[in-house]
Specification:
homodimer; elongated; 11 helices; about 260 residues; five-stranded mixed sheet; alpha/beta
Chain lengths: ~260, ~260
């Protein structure tokens, strides 16, 4: 049976609410995911929450019940609470009725199996959590192996990134590495590194993309450092027919990812 | 010479700050755009601000100077102010050093010239201002004629939408219409209406896309109403190879838009 918490001053509520900050996530090794849909996606991917908070009206929802029971059977805790507290945990005025607290995953390059997919997404110095989450979601849609975060990127376990990923944070592998670590790892095995660049004349639909292709996209404002682009096997550009010369980073990644799917060899 | 404002209690500061709310934008017919880059893009598109706020350190910046002078010559006003006030106007901790206040544009379907481009983006019941702005930015990149907002969509003049558009709010035509108005207008001239759908077996790369193609994307959570899809000339889907069955709305639009560019006839 779930414990009931209705007081905002409850220590667990305070602790979970603090997970909206990166510092507390690092200390606890935990992160938040909102919504029954995402919590169900997590369960399907073999991830049970350590804590699962739900609104009273969800008490008898069969899927929620099943996941809450599994959570408790695995040593976790289910908590029935108010809409007000759910809003305070997620920082939203109209909170979801379910919120899960999960162990952060390992994000070691060494744990990746590059043969698992013909396409991998690689982001360098990514700043926007919405872009990061959207890349995970796109990665799931194209059947990518996962997302590799190079250099200092925004936290993939932030509430905004998890939200934008629509659950793909649980289904896509995630690795974090410096550029040196990444390029060392990449060159130790098969893989074509393709940079999305503004400094090339090669149209993105010209090449074929041998599997596994690693699709590298740079920082939202600055793009990729020139020396990173130079270290790639291929630099391609998307045509720009307008006044501006760039696309949103997650959008450019998705256009490329679908193209790699089409032109894979 | 620019007026100097350093007091947060200044009536103009209060008035401009209020433009972050839709209600005040509607009352005043004005909206905000941050950053010299976007303000310069606006000027290039023939739009001068009614007010232009800038930090003291920008006082002698040639581009800022030129736009501020043009603004004043056209009856507008340039205001030199503090980083603190710029932050309060934009709601950001690290505000841009330039902020423009612009007249909202006409958004009548009747004003669109459908022959101006082979591709138009159409969004229905869009909810996220970041998605809307990203669609405008993508529209600019693919050389779209503009973005048509069908039914009740988020405000294209919101600060978040303008920010995500990276200036494309000034270069893309924007129209707002009910579904009945839109479909009536569309069928009164040439145009192929293509729905991005989950309820079709036609892969997005199978058809050709006669110009002008109108690319219709639905609400982030619900997609398009079935009767809207039925009214389209073509329904296509993007392959989904993952656990989830959807992409971010702005991402899906962009993948489609680049495909229409490639497969246009």
């Amino acid at each position: 049976m779930p414990r009931e918490i209705t007081a905002y001053s409850n220590p667990l509520v305070k602790r979970v609410r603090a997970l909206r900050e990166k510092r507390h996530r690092r200390e606890e090794g935990l992160f938040l995911a909102e919504g029954l849909r995402i919590v169900a996606e997590a369960e399907e991917a073999g991830r049970l929450p350590r804590y699962i908070f739900h609104a009273r009206e969800m008490r008898d929802h069969p899927l929620l019940r099943r996941i809450a029971n599994a959570c408790e059977a695995a040593g976790g805790e289910a908590v029935e609470t108010t809409a007000d507290i759910l809003g305070k945990l997620s920082g939203k005025d109209n909170p979801q009725t379910v919120l899960g607290v999960y162990d952060e995953f390992e994000t070691d390059l060494a744990a990746l199996d590059r043969g698992a997919s013909g396409i991998w997404l690689v982001a360098q110095a990514l700043r926007d959590p919405g872009n990061l989450g959207t890349m995970l979601r796109t990665g799931d849609a194209v059947g990518a192996g996962g997302l590799i975060l190079v250099d200092e990127c925004v936290d993939p376990f932030s509430l905004e990134a998890v939200r934008a990923s629509m659950g793909a944070v649980f289904t896509q592998a995630i690795a974090r590495a410096s550029w040196a670590e990444f390029i060392g790892w990449l060159r130790a095995g098969p893989g074509t590194l393709v940079a999305l660049s503004l400094r090339t004349e090669i149209d993105y639909r010209e090449p074929t993309y041998p599997a596994p292709t690693f699709l590298l996209v740079g920082n939202e404002a600055r793009g990729l450092p020139a020396e990173y682009e130079d270290a790639c096997d291929l630099r391609v550009k998307l045509p720009m027919r307008g006044k501006a010369d760039s696309l949103n980073a997650a959008v450019a990644t998705a256009v490329m990812a679908y193209t790699v799917l089409s032109l894979a060899v």
